[in-house]
Specification:
By secondary structure, this protein is mainly beta. It has six helices and 37 strands. The chain is elongated.
């Protein structure tokens, strides 16, 4: 026994993983009773810091193997290993052969306890230093975090919104604050002791438990119920390869109109019910279409005309332009004049009385939008691609051309294909493109960025923003060599700029 204690004591300064393995179905030895005994023993509490460390190392330093003696199965052999942490360093085990009838060894736990108690007695008797603070209480645990409010309240867009959490007892190190929406952790962006800013995780679900854990603190915060909403998703599922949505428009009641290729215009009510609005005319589809006065739909076909569609009636020609003109896109101004453009060297205004005025240009137009008294056009010529604008003085008079945003300078010439564009209520220009993040947002200060990176897929060929926060677009994509289209809804978290056709 003395040999065992001496060997263990020599290795007290090594800390090992405690492993107790018993062979031949012998019951496993547990060490927790020894820890409990030590930590609650008055003598142990009077030890100095170093002697406490020695004792804990004693318990952690032992690996026991208990198995039947191969030569005499009526007896057992116990090996006690004291093996340091350094890899590659091996210690020979201390081996004792004993009979299970020997009272001291009837229980392996009793035997091991005896070893530790005897060894620790030597430590206790040799300690002549003053007691030290507990070996385990290095520093006090922090206070439980508390949530007092969340901005935005109640809900946010999954994978998009930056959520601000106000409260107390947060860590100033953002990495130490673990913010959970349900079981999914949010990425921390900013942190102070009273406020956290996190990115809402890409989890679409209602009634989630929003809670916070701070590293080193035992308890979670109080729970706030929270909803994470879909930011971008298919609005209506058409039969793939059969119903091919090409163009979209929205009326003042938030009914969505979709031109299905070779079928005509379908109407999706605000409650999601699909019905037929009008049969097809001579066209296969419209390149662009807008809801105009009296709920009449106006469309373009890349021809020298604008067409109109009333409910239940196939399309008819509204106005015709000179030979050589092709009209791609149109919009209404506050006086219900139509502005239309495409190719052929001019764009046009059309009054409600169908009076037409031409304005010469030296570029082709892929999209246009009327906003805040200006006509904005996406123009392209050999050495330049840009968003231009003109102040609208009247249907027959425009101000001088202004370059609003230089697309070629920002992204390179012939690098961006523009399908449509619109404005938000706070002056942001939204451009639908063929870029990997399809929507480019241009602020009034000229700064460009992607909207909802990773969520809005290309190509955005048609855009319509309703009276609420929903923007709809037709996505064109290729699947197995086939060009397909789908209707997508985007929660913009804000309203559109005024649209004058409705």
């Amino acid at each position: 026994m003395k040999k065992i204690i001496q060997s263990i004591s020599k290795n007290y300064n090594f800390v090992f993983k405690t492993t107790c393995v018993l062979i031949d179905s012998i019951k496993s030895i547990g060490l927790k009773p020894l820890f409990d005994w030590a930590l609650n023993n008055p003598t142990f509490k009077r030890l100095c810091y170093n002697c406490r460390a020695k004792f804990i190392s004693l318990i952690n330093a032992v690996k026991i193997l208990l198995f039947r003696n191969k030569r005499d199965e009526s007896r057992f052999t116990i090996n006690i290993f004291t093996q340091p942490l350094k890899r590659g360093v091996k210690k020979k085990p201390i081996t004792m052969d004993f009979s299970p009838n020997f009272p001291v060894f009837r229980s392996a736990l009793q035997y091991f306890s005896l070893v530790i108690i005897i060894a620790s007695t030597a430590l206790l008797c040799s300690c002549n230093q003053d007691a030290a603070p507990s070996l385990y209480v290095v520093e006090p645990k922090g206070s439980t975090p508390a949530i007092s409010g969340v901005i935005p309240a109640n809900e946010a867009l999954a994978g998009v919104t930056e959520v601000t959490i106000n409260g107390s007892n947060f860590s100033r190190l953002k990495e130490e604050n673990l913010v959970f929406f349900g079981t999914v952790q949010a990425a921390a962006l900013q942190a102070s002791s009273t406020q956290l800013v996190v990115k809402a995780p890409a989890l679409i679900k209602n009634n989630l438990d929003l809670k916070i854990s701070v590293q080193g603190v035992e308890n979670f915060s109080n729970i706030i119920k929270y909803n994470l909403l879909e930011a971008v998703g298919v609005y209506y599922t058409f039969a793939k390869g059969v119903d091919d949505p090409m163009t979209v428009a929205v009326d003042k009641s938030e009914n969505v109109f979709v031109y299905l290729k070779d079928q005509g215009i379908k109407k999706i009510s605000s409650t999601g019910v699909l019905s037929s609005f009008a049969p097809r005319g001579a066209e296969s589809f419209f390149f662009d279409m807008k809801v105009g006065p009296n709920n009449i739909i106006y469309g373009t076909r890349n021809l020298r005309a604008i067409f109109q569609v009333s409910e239940g009636v196939a399309s008819s020609t509204y106005v015709v332009f000179p030979t050589g003109i092709s009209i791609i896109t149109l919009d209404f101004d506050a006086s219900k004049n139509i502005w239309a453009a495409g190719g052929g060297g001019s764009f046009f205004s059309v009054t409600p009385n169908k009076d037409i005025t031409a304005f010469p240009i030296d570029y082709t137009v892929s999209a246009l939008r009327v906003y805040n008294g200006y006509l904005y056009v996406a123009g392209k010529k050999d050495n330049e691609e840009a968003i231009y604008r003109y102040k609208i003085n009247s249907n027959t008079s425009l101000g001088s051309i202004e370059k609003y945003f230089d697309i070629g300078a920002k992204y390179g010439l012939n690098k961006v294909q523009i399908g449509a564009m619109t404005f938000s209520e706070n002056d942001d220009l939204i451009i639908g493109t063929d870029q990997s993040d399809s929507f480019i947002v241009v602020t009034s200060g000229g700064t460009a960025s992607s909207l909802y990176p990773g969520l809005i897929k290309p190509f955005a060929r048609s855009i319509a923003w309703g009276t609420k926060k929903n923007l709809f677009y037709i996505r064109e994509y290729t699947d197995a060599g086939a060009i397909l289209h789908t209707l997508v809804r985007v929660d913009m978290q804000k309203l559109s700029a005024p649209y004058y056709g409705r």
